[in-house]
Amino acid sequence: KISESTIRRLSKYYRSLEQLIARNTDTVSSDQLAEMDGITSAQVRKDLSFFGTFGKRGLGYNTRALKEQIGEILGLSKEWRVAIVGAGNIGKALVNYGEFRKQGFQVHLIMDSDHGKVGQTIQGLTVESTDHLPQLIKKQRIEIAIIAVPSEAAQRVADELMEAGVKAILNFAPISIKAPEGIQVKNENTAIEIEALSYFLTNQG
Amino acid sequence: KISESTIRRLSKYYRSLEQLIARNTDTVSSDQLAEMDGITSAQVRKDLSFFGTFGKRGLGYNTRALKEQIGEILGLSKEWRVAIVGAGNIGKALVNYGEFRKQGFQVHLIMDSDHGKVGQTIQGLTVESTDHLPQLIKKQRIEIAIIAVPSEAAQRVADELMEAGVKAILNFAPISIKAPEGIQVKNENTAIEIEALSYFLTNQG
Ligand SMILES: NC(=O)c1ccc[n+]([C@@H]2O[C@H](COP(=O)([O-])OP(=O)(O)OC[C@H]3O[C@@H](n4cnc5c(N)ncnc54)[C@H](O)[C@@H]3O)[C@@H](O)[C@H]2O)c1
Ligand SMILES: NC(=O)c1ccc[n+]([C@@H]2O[C@H](COP(=O)([O-])OP(=O)(O)OC[C@H]3O[C@@H](n4cnc5c(N)ncnc54)[C@H](O)[C@@H]3O)[C@@H](O)[C@H]2O)c1
Hints:
2 copies of one chain form a homodimer. By secondary structure, chain A is an alpha/beta fold. The first copy, chain A, has 2 domains: 4-73, Orthogonal Bundle (Arc Repressor Mutant, subunit A), CATH 1.10.10; 80-191, NAD(P)-binding Rossmann-like Domain (Rossmann fold, 3-Layer(aba) Sandwich). The first copy, chain A, contains 9 helices and 9 strands. Chain A has helices at residues 4-22, 30-37, 41-50, 63-74, 89-95, 98-102, 133-139, 151-163, 190-203, and strands spanning 27-28, 61-62, 80-85, 105-112, 121-122, 125-129, 144-147, 168-171, 184-187. In chain A, strand 7, helix 8 (151-163) and strand 8 form a beta-alpha-beta unit. Chains A and B meet through helix 1, helix 4, helix 5, helix 6 and strand 8 of A and helix 1, helix 4, helix 5, helix 6 and strand 8 of B. Bound molecules: nicotinamide-adenine-dinucleotide (2 copies). One nicotinamide-adenine-dinucleotide sits between chains A (85-91, 111-114, 117, 130, 148-151, 153, 157, 172-174, 188-190) and B (93-94, 97-98).
């Protein structure tokens, strides 16, 4: 069973490889990849061999082939249909987030429970009402949903999404969403990111 | 040199310990902590011994003592003064993010270059102009800054922040910020989080 940090490293290797390819670099060593991502080359080799990828002695890895392979593992060679629940600050920021589109994640639906927001357009997408969540999720064939509502509404929204057939949820609300086996919930918490900075300032700054 | 993923795990242990303490649990084993965070108990013991923390054979770790110790390591026993540059969707969402305050990160300043936004109040905080960034950063004794502006403005804003004495930056713009030794920049990228979901759907869903 792959750990969360291994998958995260794969996403980082993918981006490092994109940069190398943009500079017309054909091969990369595990040392180089490790340095670009602030980890050990042993970790790089361990991660990649786990997925059956082995570099050539003395040559390293072919950047384009490796990027393609990691892309396959991460599911980036297909387009994913995404819905956002909650058209507030976070929801609006995500409708237009270029990185999502670039990696193949297309927001097809945004919903809110506030009738004052329903009907507004955000980047060409009309805010729909959560009154029709199940129908809209099915009609838009949504595969991944993002929860961007206040904490008190988050679990209920998650339940409705799962009932409508969504199997993967990215949750921004600061609560732990309960979900059965077979449903993947990822909790996004910017406080964890900022703690890496307070760690740095405390131990080195 | 501690890896990014180790620090991230410390933040997760901290939250797991908070939950255990809230349930009046006095001790926890590395197995239990590992299970709560989806990793191996060997990893837990390795992380904690790195910081000189050793559980008692058969008993495990004292939850309150361990949480306090991890809090010290992460720098959570002090209040941090935070500034946000960019009063758009992301900036506004972060002014009010309860998790920041809960962990001791207080937003004292929010700035924007759009004079139409300067003077508006967000959660009681007045949007200031980036024309006065250096003075405001010093006056407010800002320690950590968050960049929530479009990509094209991000590096310039980072340079101004560093020149004003900020040593730690959390960057939301989808570019890699260049910074000298001694300055820590953390790049926040929600696309990496959503890729963990496409990985799941591709390999198990
Ligand atoms: N993970 C992070 O790093 C992070 C950062 C900032 C905010 N947040 C969290 O993200 C969430 C959204 O933050 P925000 O600043 O965008 O809040 P916001 O108040 O601007 O937006 C919330 C939106 O959700 C809608 N809503 C409420 N209940 C709903 C329901 N049952 N169904 C559908 N829509 C509903 C509201 O009408 C509103 O439009 C909050 O839980 C906040 O704590 C997380
Ligand atoms: N990391 C992530 O997961 C993630 C998610 C969504 C958006 N983003 C990024 O975050 C950034 C902000 O997104 P948003 O949706 O809040 O955008 P936004 O357009 O709503 O807000 C940007 C704000 O920055 C201000 N600004 C522009 N140039 C400035 C400068 N030089 N100094 C000060 N302020 C300036 C604008 O006036 C505006 O108020 C963008 O770069 C976006 O790509 C990141």
